[in-house]
TrEMBL record:
InterPro entries: OMP/PagP_B-barrel (IPR011250). This is Uncharacterized protein. It comes from the Bacteria. The lineage of its organism: Bacteria, Pseudomonadati, Spirochaetota, Spirochaetia, Leptospirales.
Length: 232
């Protein structure tokens, strides 16, 4: 059994690109004076000042896996893992305005807002190939497929001066993952595990028919040899 976690070194895909495009669209509207820019919804923001840079944070990953060795070199495993991605940037908000025919006025909030852009739960199965047989130093390569469910912040509508709120949308998807790593056993029962991986996820929800998330990075954690532990 392995318990590992870490941060992504790369996060991309169409879902991430959509968020970046939205932020770029807001910047263009602010620079052109299409929408007013305010701080905390009330204070005017000087047009000559640049808006704070938006950013998508590194994703946080967690994974638990159980592997069963069918030969000295090949093992099958099942896993449960999570990925969470935070974003920070400007946003388009609305305030009640009875003088406006729409009933509200929109503006760009200059103070960066943080939220969880994407969070998922993955249920996977896969195969590992171990290069060395029953060795304290245990390098391996693994392939995994998974089904997942997720929640994501997703804006609908076109990028214009109308107000399109951000809702949290649930959905489902499929994922694929490849990893290369090594286990190092301190004792026959316990050791450390580290791996470098890349993954791609295809997503679908009631808000969109197809989006994707790509991420890569490394994970570090612990490994427990349940067979050796069971001998006590």
């Amino acid at each position: 059994m392995t318990v590992i976690g870490g941060e992504t070194a790369y996060t991309g895909g169409s879902l991430i690109q959509r968020e970046k495009d939205y932020q770029s669209g807001l910047r263009s509207q602010a620079n052109l004076g299409v929408l007013p820019v305010k701080m905390l919804g009330t204070l005017p923001f000087p047009q000559s000042f640049p808006l704070p840079s938006d950013k998508v944070q590194a994703g946080n990953t967690r994974k638990v896996a159980m592997e069963y060795g069918i030969t000295d070199h090949i093992g099958l495993f099942i896993s449960y893992s999570t990925l969470s991605i935070e974003s920070q940037g400007t946003n388009q908000l609305a305030v009640i305005d009875r003088a406006n025919p729409n009933g509200y006025t929109t503006y760009i909030e200059a103070v960066p807002l943080s939220n969880t852009l994407y969070k998922d739960r993955n249920y996977g199965m896969g195969i590992n190939y171990h290069f060395l047989s029953k060795n304290r130093f245990d390098p391996f390569i693994g392939l995994e497929v998974s089904i997942l469910n997720f929640d994501t912040k997703y804006r609908t509508g076109q990028l214009n001066n109308l107000y399109y709120p951000t809702y949290t949308h649930p959905g489902t998807g499929l994922g694929g993952r490849v990893a290369f790593g090594t286990n190092y056993y301190i004792t026959p029962e316990f050791g450390f595990s580290i791996e470098v991986y890349g993954a791609r996820k295809m997503l679908k929800s009631n808000a969109f028919s197809s989006e994707s998330i790509n991420h890569a990075g490394f994970q570090f954690g612990f490994i427990f040899n349940m067979e050796a532990i069971g001998k006590y």
